[in-house]
Amino acid sequence: MQGEAMTKRRRGWNYFEACRANLTPEAKRNSRIFTVWCLGWALSFVGATWLLLNETVTAAPLTWLLALVPTVIGLLLIRSYVRFFRSADELMQKVHLEALAFGFGAGFLFMTGYALFERIGAPAMSVSDPVAVIAFAWALGQLLAMRRYS
Question: In this structure, are 40 and 81 located in the same domain?
Answer without folding.
Answer: yes
